[in-house]
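Forum > Structural Biology > Help requests

Title: Can anyone predict the 3D structure of 3'-5' exonuclease domain-containing protein?

Hi all, first post here. I have the sequence for 3'-5' exonuclease domain-containing protein but no way to get a structure on my laptop. I'd be grateful if someone could post the structure tokens.
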Amino acid sequence: MGTRDRLRVLLGIACLAAAAAAAIAYYGTRKRRSKHGGSRARCYLEVEDKPQKSFKRVLADNSYGPFKHFRRDGKVKEEPPETHPYEKEITFLLENPPTIPSCGGVNNQSNVAGSFGWVTTRSQLEELALVLAKEQVFAVDTEQHSLRSFLGFTALMQISTQNEDYLLDTIALHDDMNILRSGFADPSICKVFHGADNDVLWLQRDFHIYVVNLFDTAKACDVLLKPYRSLAYLLETYCGITANKMLQREDWRQRPLSAEMIEYARGDAHYLLFIADCLVKELKTKSNENSSFAGDKSSFLLEACRRSNTISLQLYLKDTEFCPGDSTASSIVSRYLLNSEGGFLSPSSQIIDQVRKLCTWRDLMARVHDESLRYVLSEQAIVAIATRIPKNPQKIYDIIVEADSNSDSTSIGFPSQSFPSPVVCSHLADLLCLLEEDMDNSIDLFKRILKKHLVPTGTCSLSIYNYALLSNYNLKAVNVSLKKNGGKPTKKVGRKASRQLFVQKFSCKAPVYHNCRIYASDGRLLCYCDRRKLEWYLNRDLAKLVDDDPPAIMLLFEPKGRPEDEDNDFYIQSKKNMCVGCGERNHYLRYRIVPSCYRMHFPEHLKSHRSHDIVLLCVDCHEIAHAAAEKYKRQVAKEFDIPLFVRKVTDSGQKEVTAEANGPLGKLADAGVSPLQLRTAAMALLRHGTRMPQNRREELTDVVRGYFGGRDISDEDLERALLVGMSPQERRRLKKKRGLSFKNGVGATTTESTESDWKASGGNLPETITDVGRNSSVSDTKAALMNGHAITYDLLEEDVHNPLSPKEEKSGFQDTENGRKPLDGSVEGSSGYSNKISLLGHGPHGKQVVEQILKEYGEEGIGQFCQRWRQDFVEAINPRFLPAGWDIKHSGRRDFGEYSVYNPVKKPNNQVEELQ
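Reply #1:
Sure, ran it for you. Structure tokens for 3'-5' exonuclease domain-containing protein below:
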């Protein structure tokens, strides 16, 4: 090879090396820019068309702002935002139920093979509106899509008159559907639905359509006490039609619709008028046959109309929260990380922080791209990523694939789809950066994500669904004014901050009602429940999944009883996550209408169905209800002559010690000692005994001696006295919270040795002389906090720093900054509330009351006792949003099947006691 050829080869190699170096430098710079948000990644929505892209306006966007309802005649300022625009018309129908016109005609039992109207244009919709305006009654049904939309949208509407069926393409007509508003709001026209609870809300959400004069065939089934209330049951009973409900899970966005989907959609409304006509005739017949309603021959029909029109008064509300994703993160940590079949896990703060960031990212990505949360990223994938902390995008991809592939094939609510989702695939690098960065709080994280993805220079395009997010750039953050001025805010700010902190700490972090459904093997609806109950059956192969959204299962065995057979229609009604008193949806707490101190002692078959008497209340309504309950407890204590609180205690297991009759020890031994005095004295002596003045130490020692019969006491006796009246759990909490050393080992041995005695005695410790019992429950502690009082152990600390004076001990009251407080836990004055109630609890009061009721009146007396508590709750709160089927006279009686966790035969005695 010549010199010239060698030079050419070397020059070529040099050029290739330079090109390679330039390429490496370019892609390295691009990667670094991508890591720091400097380059714009390609979003999958740039090449994927979604049907909702064609919508010119939406009434419910994906922002955190509230939903704005339709206002008639533009009177926005004159009507509060919570007012239903047609409340007057619906209220009139509730007071004067209308006459249901005959619903028969051509649509009786004829099949759906005939022609139908396919409405796709505005002119066709206007013609349909004119047709409906001339009708006396028409049937309506809707098909929804929720997987590829954050809030979901109506994909199809079916309307049937007595002469023809219509299918409305609500995707093509989305911006024109308001044309039907006047027809649906006309009180002279009856609209027939089946299970309209969700339909009326969806119509408000998408089109500002409000239903006035509604007849719900499901409510008619309730009044008639039908064995089933499903549309499939009605179709088979009255029309001989077997509906394929699996088509309900189809993607109703697709166009054109398949022949099977058209037939299914038409059938839901086509036969509905005939079914309604049959039910109306049965309601009238039942009224005529029932002698107790001889004065009103249409009472059953009127009741069905009242129940139906009550549904129309519902208002659609968007779920909002202070910090996006925080409530979901708390729920995931609780369900996947804190509890497991293998035992209790304690996740690190780093894992919890990663879960919080992933939930915030998922929430924002779902809103930005208008996708459902489960489509963006599954909860299993969130847990896997947070615990394994991937170091590169490929690792994130692999973890998600593995997590979703290994999840149970019958997992609830997770439809068949490719994973990871396109949202994750197009933003893998951004997700990795998010995991590597440290963010102080959810608000900063929200702003960072929003800025990176949604502003004009972000990675994702703006749309009518996500544009409003920019107006909520500064979300309401947690009140941080407590951190200023040395933690001493003004009184006004402190009260507001205290309430907000209470809401954040104690309010439910996730929806309480999941409205999952359980069906019997014959298709009969048994109850609505949460996801955990469904998963319990599925994990044990006791049921099969029959629907994803909302989740539903069918049992593979015959249950012991049916809700309607046991007079428990409440359990086959869907429920809403909102305060039953005022309708607040931003926060709520569980409230027990029948206090636990009584219910825990009910017979098992009367207390296992507790959900009827556990309702959701906001902080303000919870405080009102709790105050009324405390007042009623005092009334119960007076009626049954059973003291509500602990009075005097003494150690009955000690040998009697001789004491001078005229000495202080003799008096204490005869009268016993107040448990508050005993604990206060024991705590003070344990912590400050050696530093106390001699006379004060002797005074407190005499108090403790009085409990032990007057004998000399040791440090071990002081430790025992400190734990008097506490349940084993509360003893462990006290030891952990206060860090007491318990030099003599009493803190551990006493707690463990007395646990069996505690359960065996029904909550009465061996030291009891009159009324010693367990401390307040968690709900009592929350209620005390809500009323501005400190929790149990803060009270104990306060008593340690403020020992009783001889004058206070003699008078029976202690002087504090908040006034005089009775030492025995009683209430001073008619309207006062003692801070010591939480410390002392209710002792055996509840058990003795229940035992007396059972002895004198039997189980019927327990039912009447519960009714009294429900009546007191209704009078105190005046609830307007109680779930359908809730009744003051509700019966909680039930039988236990073979697989029931409450069946005493299927669980050891200790498990029964723990469940109680």
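The mean pLDDT is 74. The two ends are 96 Å apart (CA to CA).
Shout if anything looks off.
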